[in-house]
Amino acid sequence: MIVCVPSRGSTVDSQMDDRFGRAPYFAFFDTMNDSVRFEANPHAGGSGGVGPQAVQFLVSNNVQTLIAPRLGGNADEALKAAQITVIMQNPDVTVEAAYSSWKKNSENSA
Amino acid sequence: MQIVIASGKGGTGKTTVSSNLGYVLSHRQKITLADCDVEEPNLGIFFPCTPETREVSVTVPRVFESQCQHCGACGEFCKFGALTVLTDRVLFFPQLCHSCGGCFRVCPHDALEKASIMVGGIQICHLSDSLTLVTGKLKEGDVRTTFVIKAVRDYVKEDPIVIMDAPPGTACPFIETVDDASLCVLVTEPTPFGLHDLNVAVRVLEILGIPAVVVINRSDDHDEIIEEYCGVHHLPVLMKIPLDMKLLQIQNAGTLISQADPVWFERFSTLGDQILAHAGGRT
Asked: Most CB atoms closer than 10 Å: which of A92, B105, B171, B229?
């Protein structure tokens, strides 16, 4: 499964971004082997409607779970329609910490 | 001929100038007042009437899911995020759509049809034989301001003299309003904020090639901050309206100062002459 975390930078020790649609990078973690790759968000500087555009970007990258701090209404609607699970997370952590803490929780509850 | 009353900064007195100017000039010629501040139109306060109303609609896409291959072309094209293509369906966000029509062109499967949604309306009031008020009104919650302004402009485009009350600021709604203007009257106030936004408006008008003149409102006779700027930029200052409690009281009662006071009728009449001369159409 691919898990996405919006990120300020392109490394795992980057801080998680407190925005979704305008985050400069997205971290895509693969739960199979905990590998990660970063993609620049092509819509970060868009004039508007960046939330749904970011969701489309996540869909094309096969994301099933998004760890995010807060979402706009349009992004929320698009994520629901795309059946991407949203996990709320305070953004004052690194992307790696956000992913690890999500993974620990999901393993505990499984 | 279209004369736009604008300001850059909000609350400087655009409506004061446009309402009085329209009222006074209509005593000698046919005038159309057009309220292009469609987010908060307020010319109607001075001219109460029962308007004739017309809807303003825009074209948006509607997806034929049976025809759609979810190829993503429309979602890729839409810079406003109005179309989100998922693996099994397309989401459309009408509030994000700018009605550019691009999605219809890029869809390779004829899976989009044209639908229409209402974004506002225009209200038409024939106030007298020589004065008509046309007011644009954006639907609450909508953001497609320029389409409603365009509808106002289309309605008044054949009228001989149109005085347009512009929206504040210098962004898209202002630019849509001044598009066909022969002259722009910038109403400002003698404050640093007034000067700053006057300068922004002047620079926009320079790029658009539209001549400008200035009216100073809330003048306290120490208007050097504006006068110096106008001198440097060769902008004629055609009128000063003093900061006067009596004038404010007349206006706050919903009355035009030119209606209540013959002196102001005369002043706006002179202003009208000057404006028409600057706009190129002598009376």
From this structure: B229
Contact indicator for A61, A4 with CB cutoff of 8 Å: yes
Give how many domains chain B has, as a whole number: 2
Asked whether residue B117 is domain-assigned, the answer is no
CB atoms within 10 A of CB A11: 14
What does the angle CA B190 – CA B196 – CA B202 come to, to the nearest 5 degrees? 100
Share of chain A above pLDDT 70, in %: 99
Does residue B155 sit in the same domain as residue B25? yes
**Which residues in A lie closer than 8 A to residue B84 (C-beta atoms)?**
52-53, 55-56, 78, 81-82
CA angle A21, A26, A31 (to 5 degrees): 130
ipTM: 0.76
A34-74: per-residue pLDDT in tens? Answer: 999 999 999 999 888 899 999 999 999 999 999 998 898 99
Q: Is B115 inside any structural domain? A: no
Q: Which residue of A has its CA nearest to B76?
A: A53
Of A46, A59, A74, the CB nearest to B93: A74
Q: Do B86 and A82 touch (CB under 8 A)?
A: yes
Is B116 part of a structural domain of the chain?
no
CATH, residue B93: 3.30.70.20
Cβ–Cβ gap A60/B72 under 8 Å:
yes
Contacts of residue A107, Cβ cutoff 8 Å, sequence gap at least 6: none
The reply to whether B230 and B212 lie within a common domain is yes
Q: Where in the sequence is the domain holding B179, given as residue range(s)?
A: 2-56+122-279
Which of A 28-87 lie inside 8 A of B, CB atoms?
A: 43, 46-53, 55-56, 59-60, 74, 77-78, 81-82
The count of residues in chain A is 110
Strand order in the sheet with B131-138: B52-63, B112-128, B131-138, B31-35, B162-165, B2-6, B183-188, B212-219, B237-242
pLDDT lower than 70: segments of chain B: 281-283
What pLDDT is stored for residue A109 in this prediction? 78
Q: What is the CATH number of the domain that holds A64?
A: 3.30.420.130
- Answer yes or no: do B84 and B13 share one domain: no
